[in-house]
Design goal:
By secondary structure, the chain is an alpha/beta fold. It contains 15 helices and ten strands. The strands form two sheets. It has a six-stranded parallel sheet, with helices on both faces. Strands 8-7-9-10 form a four-stranded mixed sheet, with helices on one face. Helix 5 packs antiparallel against helix 13. The protein starts with a strand and ends with a helix.
Amino acid sequence: MKRVLVLGSTGSIGTNAINIISYMPKDFCLCGVQAHSSEDKLIRIAEQYKCPYLLTSKDISAEAFIKLIEESKPDIVVNGISGAAGLMPSKIVLEHGIDLALANKETIVMAGSLIKQLAAEKNAKIIPVDSEHSAIFNLVEKIGKKNISKVIITASGGPFRTYTKEQLENVTVEQALNHPTWQMGKKITIDSSTLANKGLEVIEAAYLFDLTAEQIEVVVHPQSLIHSLVRTNDGMLYAQISDPDMKHPIFGALTWPENKQTYLEPFDLFDKTMTFFKPRMQDFPMLQYAFECVKFGKANPIAFNAANEVAVHAFLDKKVSYNAISRIVRSVLDKNWNQDINSFDDVFAADELARKYAAELI
């Protein structure tokens, strides 16, 4: 039986992870929970699952996370924390030599090389939970990295896929929070609509799977049934297909390296339609900026993530317009981010500086 610690346990990822644990009591035990907010909900979860180890937003220091891990003694940690706040817990988990089921893409975007190096040193596995990276992870495991020439990440296109440039100028917060396929938190929902989320996934894929920008492609697939594809050296395409339900990749991460029988509904091919389109990078420039960050490396991905976080929160607070998000990020990226990232202190310094630039622009 695996002991599972869930970080961000009241959010979408955490809720789905706990649902899986509850359905598979012979396989999993919920040994600890953490949440940034929703303290009442967190306490109810802890009581329901007789879980004595919990951490709330009252104490989110490194020492508190270390204590939570050392007391709960997990075999695997699900990191469903949103944003840059998820990096420090990921680092602590890997420092303890514990496998990390990672839904927090900022961990890799901000500190990909350092995180992978730490995992290797501690003999801990990073198992991606994003549906796209979970698909790539499984396809690479089955086909072999040396046999793959390109990775193709799918994007739903968000609610504004067919909007004109003029329509995008007038997008409201309420419109942007209405995603056509996935039910997610506010920040990631906005990111999905601007394609910044897909941009973060491009950067994450480059670090996780040692890919160049030229080896990654994005295709808009509104039905969100294919979660990613790989093209092998002989030109063939292989895809992972399932209904758009985050329980599938979470289940895969928790049961890895086994391929266990699932209680989830199997995918049915009948009466399904799948369509594919090229992303409109001129109208949704955040995706193009992300590809640039992969090419330039250094501190650029950190700046991209930090500036976007600040700009999105300003949009949610109705301080800036929808299209201002990409303009703020572009202005921040136009600064010099050519410095080497040799330590986590370097990561946090670049992050802080990018946030300062973005706040000044707002």
